[in-house]
Amino acid sequence: MSSMLAKIAETEAEMAQAQKNKATTHHLGLLKARLAELRQELITPKGGGGGGEGFDVAKTGDVRIGFVVFPSVGKSTLLSNLAGVYSKVAAYEFTTLTTVPGIIRYKVAKIQLLDLPGIIEGAKDGKGRGHQVIAVAGTCNLILIVLDVLKPLGHKKITENELEGFGIHLNSKPPNIGFKKKDKGGINLMATCPQSELDAETVKSILDEYKIHNADVTLHSDARADDLTDVVEGNRVYIPCIYVLNKIDQISIEELDIIYKVPHCIPISAYHHWNFDDLLEKIWDYLKLVRIYKKPNGQLPDYTSPVVLPDSRTTVEDFCMKIHKNLIKEFKYALVWGLSVKYNPQKVGKDQTLEDKDVIQIVKK
Questions:
Q1: Quick one: which H or E segment has residue 109?
Q2: Separation CA 363–CA 365 (nearest Å)
């Protein structure tokens, strides 16, 4: 373990010394690939295992939000106040790896709050639990990083680096790179636009680090060495993130105006319950959820318990699968009321795309 950490430190030091120019771009690409490989080995040691208690957290509710909070920034206050104000559960202790603060209800959706810091620190001890970090954090639909408004930038960078070290990328999309291994033919590189960092030699060297000697690589955007290693590793997760800046009661109105203009940020005071409404509205925007109301035959729609879907999967078939996988086998057609149809009701098939607050009645065979 110590030798692995030493190798990582060595590689990072070498990268820091390398000057970013044409002569060293190829060398930097190699170092980035080596660093990614070493970190991956640290996260999932050979032989599986690794000891330590497990911490599978049952997923309840419609979506899950993971909280990452720096010490002394008011984690307990924020989580307990959110849970206390927006649900009927009491205040909780947030100390163990398995603690789930509870479920809050917002716009009829059930949102699970999950405390991530203990999980992240648990992975840093090098006991082979890093893959569980990725597994748990990767199930979150949104991550909230709570920072002290008086010293946000330093803490923000540390937290981002820590998460990126475990393959969790915030507010970014997967690299637009096509990658396919093959049995023979060597490395075939195609680029559909000019490249500033990756050339045939660098790509071949990076793939050599992974003992890949035959593959087709297509670069659809100006890609970096890190992007290629992310695609080759294949286990990165891309999650939206909101930076919650706590303790705004300690800053001026002018400073508050500036914070409001920073992307992905929301200022609050957990202690005073200030700006919780804006926080929840921003959470809702970032979650991109669609609520579909069920209408049993001959009855009024049930507006109290919608089926909540991500906006990327909102077909009638997605709706059926969310209720029960066998429902689609019995599906004949559906009647839909709402913005997604021209007539109310309208008879539709399983491929119909639904919109927020649509009402649906399933007719079985």
A1: strand 109-115
A2: 7
